[in-house]
UniProtKB/TrEMBL annotation:
<comment type="subunit">
    <text>Homodimer, forms a heterotetramer with a Cas2 homodimer.</text>
</comment>
<keyword id="KW-0051">Antiviral defense</keyword>
<dbReference type="InterPro" id="IPR019856">
    <property type="entry name" value="CRISPR-assoc_Cas1_DVULG"/>
</dbReference>
<dbReference type="InterPro" id="IPR002729">
    <property type="entry name" value="CRISPR-assoc_Cas1"/>
</dbReference>
<feature type="binding site">
    <location>
        <position position="166"/>
    </location>
    <ligand>
        <name>Mn(2+)</name>
    </ligand>
</feature>
<feature type="binding site">
    <location>
        <position position="234"/>
    </location>
    <ligand>
        <name>Mn(2+)</name>
    </ligand>
</feature>
<keyword id="KW-0460">Magnesium</keyword>
<dbReference type="GO" id="GO:0004520">
    <property type="term" value="F:DNA endonuclease activity"/>
</dbReference>
<keyword id="KW-0255">Endonuclease</keyword>
<dbReference type="GO" id="GO:0043571">
    <property type="term" value="P:maintenance of CRISPR repeat elements"/>
</dbReference>
<dbReference type="GO" id="GO:0003677">
    <property type="term" value="F:DNA binding"/>
</dbReference>
<feature type="binding site">
    <location>
        <position position="249"/>
    </location>
    <ligand>
        <name>Mn(2+)</name>
    </ligand>
</feature>
<dbReference type="GO" id="GO:0016787">
    <property type="term" value="F:hydrolase activity"/>
</dbReference>
<keyword id="KW-0238">DNA-binding</keyword>
<dbReference type="GO" id="GO:0051607">
    <property type="term" value="P:defense response to virus"/>
</dbReference>
<comment type="function">
    <text>CRISPR (clustered regularly interspaced short palindromic repeat), is an adaptive immune system that provides protection against mobile genetic elements (viruses, transposable elements and conjugative plasmids). CRISPR clusters contain spacers, sequences complementary to antecedent mobile elements, and target invading nucleic acids. CRISPR clusters are transcribed and processed into CRISPR RNA (crRNA). Acts as a dsDNA endonuclease. Involved in the integration of spacer DNA into the CRISPR cassette.</text>
</comment>
<keyword id="KW-0464">Manganese</keyword>
Amino acid sequence: MKKLLNTLFVTQPDVYLSLDGDNVVLLKEQEKLGRLPLHNLESIVTFGYTGASPALMGYCAERNISIVFLTMNGRFLARVIGSSKGNVVLRKKQSLASEDEELSARIARNFIIGKIYNHKWMIERMTRDYPLRIDITGFKEVSLHLSSIMADIRECEDLERLRGLEGQAALSYNKLFDQMILQQKDDFFFRSRSRRPPLDPVNAMLSLAYTLLANDMTSALEGVGLDAYIGFLHRDRPGRASLALDVMEELRGVFADRFVLSLINKRIVNPEDFVRKENGAVIMTDEARKKFLGAWQNKKQEKITHPYLAEKISWGLVPHVQALLLARYLRNDLDEYPPFLWK
């Protein structure tokens, strides 16, 4: 159980939520795990299938406290809300902001600053931890280039220019990615990003990691009442969760890329985990995919200190915290959206 930004996150499996007076009670096999007053909560997010009592759902609906149900893997199931129009107001503000390209650029630039800042952090950490195994001069040059791009982005109010600056930063970062692969160099390498289809094992794993991260981000956004399909940097396209792709930019490198690198460098995956198809596509075997998904879930349980909240949370809750912060910004409760800047 973790309370953040007036939201109660219930991450333990098989926990049932019930009502006792003005309090939510957490039960597991009739054992009381916790009790929390409801009067200062805005929402409850619970991971798992066990559910909540009708009395609790009715109480929360009457007082505009949403209850969000997710699977243990973080997939969105449902959001229970009352007759309040608060959710409608939030989505209207999101839609209006998305229609205004200048405002969209001001919002989107914080997503991109978060992404580039975290890429720079990864680069600097490599120079600190592996100075004898990488090209220090090249890494330092790219780090300075990323700092320069971030300075330009902070003043950018044009979406096309913002995309161009983000593209420049991505090219510089990608040039170093192969050097971050420290083990199994004969079989695992990165030349360029290939998506449909992935043409090597590293791209196959990156594609799967980005898909999982996008799914987690979509669930988090839906959980706070935002529309995951109305974006600011990524514009509307049928079937694309544009806002999820926007917000996950901050976590691509620092979570997904580092996760893939750790699987290679710790030899958790090996060349036998991949199969090359006739069309050149490289895919993971069924067993390798299970291993990958298990490691992903374990990674999401690791504890970190959130750089903005200064509170310990699991990696798996980071998308939910960022979604909450974005919703607060769109409601004018925050002057600016605070991106996830890892330290």
